[in-house]
């Protein structure tokens, strides 16, 4: 038999709600681990944690304010966070020595100071694999929308620009017979390549730290970054963001691309120097760009990139399917609960 109570209260900083959820079972210890959840998330992860933990949640679609995060994290045993939460030494100090683990509902973890966590022996769980298919689908969709000018064409229907059939109007770039260069042939990069192959792609290229055995499945050729840029009709950013590749796609990179190249980034906004990208698009150094990620996020509405017809920008929805987001939440919950039980996290950052 269990008891369940919910207490809601407003916070003066935002319209978000802070929900305190408790559940006790007669068969369990009175001392249950305390978990702080930094956002309203799909319920899958919370359902895993609720029977065993005391949950405090920032119940809003907006990110938790920094001051609220620092206030609420004090004394918690675990943190359930998102990629919009900066978890650094200040947050870890506020949490205190009771913080045992962190689970981020993301595959990327550049928002977390991993070095600081390691020094404090705080393991960090993440959510690889479960969002791979959804992100790969979105990458292909964004590539097609950008290369075939789908957004621009749809808008012409709405604003009266669609006249008589014109054999030279709205011409785009097709995949048949093309060369696709993938920067970062990891899980998502491979999933994208598998989906693009049936479109008649002639050649796959990839760059990274070292050749990948799995590249043989798609016949992909390993080469250095500069060579990939010069040979590819489509250049896809699929690598994780690190200090080393921050601003990787800059003026120098765009200059080395073909003038008819399509650039697509669904990894992290920090990979791209957006000022240089704007200049490359305006000056026709490359044909077009599709971005699902930007820096910052959300992208300010006065960004010059938003004035360009040859730039398609989405609001970071790569993993935005019900199945993927539910699986991400559930895996985050399992990562946290497993460690609190003294077990190995299913997916831990090494």
What does this structure look like?
Mean pLDDT is 92; it is low at 1-28. The chain has 350 residues and is α/β, with parallel strands linked by helices. The chain has helices spanning 43-49, 66-72, 89-95, 114-119, 132-147, 150-158, 187-196, 225-231, 251-256, 274-282, 322-340, and strands at 2-11, 14-25, 34-37, 54-59, 78-81, 101-104, 124-125, 179-183, 203-207, 221-222, 234-237, 262-265, 288-291, 311-313. The chain has eleven helices and 14 strands. 29% of the residues lie in helices and 20% in strands. The two termini are 39 Å apart.
Low-confidence spans: pLDDT under 50, at least 5 residues?
1-28
Helical proportion, percent range: 25-40%
Average pLDDT confidence is 92
The ordered string of helix (H) and strand (E) elements is EEEHEHEHEHEHHEHEEHEHEHEEH
Task: Summarize the main sheet.
Answer: 7 strands, mixed
The helix/strand class is alpha/beta
User: Could you give the order of strands across the largest sheet?
Assistant: 1-2-4-3-5-6-7
* Apparent shape: elongated
The percent range for strand residues is 15-25%
Number of strands: 14
Distance between the termini: 39 Å
CA-atom Rg in angstroms? 23 Å
How many helices in DSSP terms?
A: 11
């Amino acid at each position: 038999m269990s008891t369940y109570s919910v207490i809601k209260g407003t916070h003066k900083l935002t319209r978000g709600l802070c929900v305190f959820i408790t559940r006790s079972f007669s068969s369990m210890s009175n001392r249950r681990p305390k978990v702080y959840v930094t956002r309203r998330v799909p319920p899958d992860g919370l359902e895993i944690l609720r029977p065993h933990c005391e949950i405090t949640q920032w119940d809003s679609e907006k990110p938790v304010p920094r001051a609220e995060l620092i206030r609420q994290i004090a004394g918690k045993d675990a943190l359930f966070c998102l990629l919009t939460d900066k978890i650094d030494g200040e947050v870890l100090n506020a949490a205190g020595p009771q913080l045992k683990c962190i689970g981020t509902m993301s595959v990327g973890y550049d928002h977390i100071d991993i070095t600081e966590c390691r020094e404090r022996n705080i393991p960090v769980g993440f959510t690889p694999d479960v969002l791979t298919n959804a992100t790969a689908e979105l990458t292909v969709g964004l590539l097609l929308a950008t290369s075939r000018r789908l957004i621009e064409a749809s808008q012409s229907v709405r604003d009266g620009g669609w006249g008589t059939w014109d054999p030279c109007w709205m011409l785009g770039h097709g995949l048949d017979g093309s060369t696709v260069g993938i920067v970062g042939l990891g899980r998502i990069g491979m999933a994208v390549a598998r989906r693009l192959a049936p479109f008649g792609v002639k050649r796959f290229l990839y760059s990274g730290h070292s050749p990948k055995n799995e590249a043989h499945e798609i016949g992909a050729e390993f080469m250095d970054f500069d060579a990939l840029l010069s040979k590819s009709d489509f250049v896809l950013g699929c690598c994780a963001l690190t200090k080393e590749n921050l601003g990787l796609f800059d003026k120098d990179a765009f200059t080395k691309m073909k003038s008819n190249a399509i650039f697509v980034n669904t990894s992290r906004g920090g990979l791209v120097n957006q000022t240089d990208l704007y200049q490359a698009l305006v000056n026709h150094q490359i044909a077009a760009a599709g971005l699902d990620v930007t820096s910052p996020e959300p992208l300010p509405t006065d960004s010059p990139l938003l004035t360009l017809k040859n730039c398609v920008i989405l609001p970071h929805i790569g993993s935005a399917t019900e199945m993927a987001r539910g699986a991400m939440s559930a895996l985050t919950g399992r990562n946290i609960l497993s460690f609190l039980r003294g077990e190995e996290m299913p997916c831990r950052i090494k």
